[in-house]
Amino acid sequence: MKVHNNKAWWLVLPVVALVAFSAIVPMMTVVNYSVQDIFDPSTRYFVGTEWYREILRDERLHNALLRQFAYSFSVLAIEIPLGIIVALSMPRRGLGVPICLILLSLPLLIPWNVVGTIWQIIGRGDIGLYGRLLHDLGIDYNYASNPADAWVTVLIMDVWHWTSLVALLCYSGLRSIPDVYYQAARIDRASHWAVFRYIQLPKLKNVLLIAVMLRFMDSFMIYTEPFVLTGGGPGTTTTFLSQTLTQMAVGQFDLGRAAAFSLIYFLIILLVTWLFYTAMTHADDKG
Amino acid sequence: MSLTLEHIERTVSGERHITDASLTLESGTFNVLLGHTLAGKTTLMRLMAGLDSPSHGRVLLNGRDMTGVPVRQRNVSMVYQQFINYPTLNVFDNIASPLKLAKVPKRDIARRVEETAGMLHIEHLLGRYPQELSGGQQQRTAMARALVKDADLVLFDEPLVNLDYKLREELRLEMRKLFHSRNTIAVYATTEPGEALALGDTTTLIHEGRILQSGPSDSVYHHPETAEAAALFGEPPINLLDVEVRGSELVIDRTTFPLPTTLATLEEGRYRLGIRPSHLGLAPMGDDDLEFRVAVGVAEISGSETFLHVENDDLELVLHLGGIHDFHVDDEIRVYVPCHKLFAFDDQGALVRSPTRSPNVPE
Fold this sequence. Notes:
The structure holds 2 protein chains of 2 kinds.
Chain A: H1 8-34, E1 36-40, E2 43-46, H2 50-57, H3 59-89, H4 96-108, H5 112-122, H6 129-136, H7 147-175, H8 179-187, H9 192-220, H10 224-229, H11 241-251, H12 255-286
Antiparallel strand pairs in A: 1-2
Helix pairs in contact in A: 1-12, 2-12, 3-7, 3-9, 4-7, 7-9, 9-12, 11-12
Chain B: E1 2-12, E2 15-26, E3 29-34, H1 41-49, E4 56-61, E5 64-65, E6 76-79, H2 91-101, H3 106-119, H4 135-148, E7 153-157, H5 165-180, E8 185-190, H6 193-199, E9 202-207, E10 210-216, H7 217-222, H8 227-232, E11 239-246, E12 249-252, E13 255-258, E14 269-275, E15 290-302, E16 305-311, E17 316-322, E18 332-337, E19 343-346, E20 351-353
Parallel strand pairs in B: 3-8, 3-9, 6-7, 7-8
Antiparallel strand pairs in B: 1-2, 1-4, 4-5, 9-10, 11-12, 11-14, 12-13, 14-19, 15-16, 15-18, 16-17, 19-20
């Protein structure tokens, strides 16, 4: 008969403790808030799913959610192809390699609120580099009052900040392709497109999966940059989910509603990320 | 059709990789490039293919200068040491890829792919993806891709190195047959002298970026022009002994022998004598054998053969013996050198005498 012992549980224990403190306890606190209406620590009422129902019917949140999706998918649609193109056009050896790597890393080293501030200045019509340029070209650009301008500026800001990450990930993927593959393709007289489609893209699949998930999660939770740049305006044009949540939680101190909202927010991110993951790994199975 | 290299040189950032290489290869022949790792075999193949262009010299195909013509405009194919296939295409599409790129009509593609796959015995695997194949099958796919397009020049860069012993034997045999009736120039780089003898119509010896000798394989093997060439073409390498001919005596360090009749034509002076490990014996084989007393160093037993390393104060020898022999380190034995099997090189290393071969006696 096989002898069982439970020693292995001791090995799992540190992880369980760590995850409990970092994730499970805070999460359960939020769950706890989300089913109560709290006036002060001694005056609390259990309200069940009341907050959730209210959240799901909230017109303001529906709009923020749509804006958020539009924003995140725009970010992905621009940054992923652009990152691939940048990575493909980077030199494969020589002095250009470290230069490119350093230049690409620079935006990644800048804190979010600084990025917001930089673009606030760059976009100004009187002294900003782009703002002034557009004015001189006769384009009436003002991110503080024109919703479209504000939206585009927030988007460009994210592209400027994060395309580097996608490019660096793709570059590392491209570097792992042995030279003989390119040589073989040249001998086969394969076109550049064929080389990309059949040699480079398959090798990039894994890093692209990581890039897509990181950029989706990050852009879906974006807070600081639009907050600094536009404060969510004009109106609510650049008020994304996280900002709405912050207003609700610390602005109006509506803890129960904010807690319910956080949980739904969390589930949406989890669901979409899972969809991306499944779609992209499934594509891998087929070939 | 023929491929000619004329005084090719290739220098990369001040370092010379190929020095003054001249060579002519005919179509319908299987040509082996034999040399150690980093000797310049791959570099030479890349120059033949047009992947690189030479710093000096010309590459001619059928007398037409191809030196500057990029590989995309040539009709060559190449098989590598690594198994290079398109990972997302199945075996059929992999083999078909060069034909599709060459805009061959669909019906012809299917026929030619099936034909080539049949020759390489992978016709039952056409629907599979490379990662679902064994190493040997992957390399067969890569070979099929190289063969399907009827290239003027097919280059094999040590294609069997990453395969296990059995598969290597099997594919080696098939490759001979595959190229038997083809009007293609096949070039095959290897580090193994045995492959050169088994496969090559011609063998070209390459050492440190120079072509030492080129010609029909057995003629290069039996008449190496230099001691270097003799050392390269043989595994284990040929034994070389520094000797001096003085009057009617042969002096090997401190030992003196009467000059054997087979070497009687040599004038006085210093020579290097070469004797292949397989020609040395533990018992006398003729009247004029040179006899050495030596101590056993190492006996490597490989399959049904024994490689015996022996030495005394004057010389070191390697014997290639059939069968398994049980020796112990420092055993005192006698080794016999049959004089009619000796190569003699002058002090510059050039061949002055090669063994007389009687056609009836197998080597």
